[in-house]
Amino acid sequence: MRSYIVSGILDHQRYGPSSDSFAFKHTMLMLNTNQMEAKKKLCSLISIEKTGLLSIHFKNLIDATNKPIREKIQSLFEIQGNQSKSLNFFVVTTPSVLGYSFNPASFYFVVSDEDKIENCAVEVHNTFNESHLYILNSPVAHSSKSSKYTHEKQFHVSPFIGREGDYEFEFELTRTYLKIEITLLLNGEPIICTRYLGELIPLTKKHLFLNIRQLIFTVLLTESRILKQAYKLYFRKKLPFFNKPTPVAMTKNALSRGFISRLKIPFV
User: Fold this and answer.
1) For residue 209, is it left (φ>0), alpha (ψ between -120 and 50) or beta?
2) Mean pLDDT calculated for residue range 153-167
3) What pLDDT, on the 0 to 100 scale, is given for residue 174?
């Protein structure tokens, strides 16, 4: 499999304690780690391990080392070298734009030659300059196209909801689209559901040129959208404020820091 631009719609639905929803265009990159590490095989408009208009740095993914990203993903799932020959490793993320980056979630997929997701990890960032890695090893449901996982919530993402509950992660991958659905359950009832459905567009100079505006907008508008939603929940819907709890294992300082964490805003 090659690398792709993923162009689609991100939809967020909050069911309680007060309902709310929003949706917007969202563009990401789905990068084959072999092409990332070969550098010349990836689109030349994306800089790997150096600053450019669009850039990816290995030290901003999973941990602060400059180890090859494929090696980092193999370590997450304890995949030995001989096992990896029939597997493809992908990073789904947004690049830095002129050195600036804030990415609420990056995804690491291990995919078989039959395009079946074998393993997945989700790296989540909050606006408190923290990140947390959810390693998803054992699917509760598995088919040729989709995989579903569950994991206890361990990371404080929003000050308008506690750290209690469980996540359901569902991923669907085909040759033409990627679907991601993350549902937060509290006592078995859905509280928040975030869905992303994106078309897979081969990563070429032509396709990147046609999608670069939306990709840059995705990166630059993310924190502004977070501020807008936080303002709505805090001032209009009067939702209670949850103080940030003590971090648990696998939570660390974010490797790529956005601007909100530098501001003293009580409701973010």
Assistant:
1) alpha
2) 93
3) 93
Whole-number average pLDDT of the chain: 90
pTM for the complete prediction? 0.93
Is the model's pLDDT at 266 over the cut of 70?
no
Which residues have a Cβ under 8 Å from the Cβ of 54 and sit 6 or more positions away?
A: 45, 46, 47, 95, 96, 97, 212, 215, 216
- pLDDT band with cut points at 50, 70 and 90 for residue 5: very high
Residue showing tokens 């939306």: 214
pLDDT in tens, 64-104: 999 999 999 999 998 866 566 679 999 999 999 999 999 99
- Parse the chain into domains and list their residue ranges: 4-262
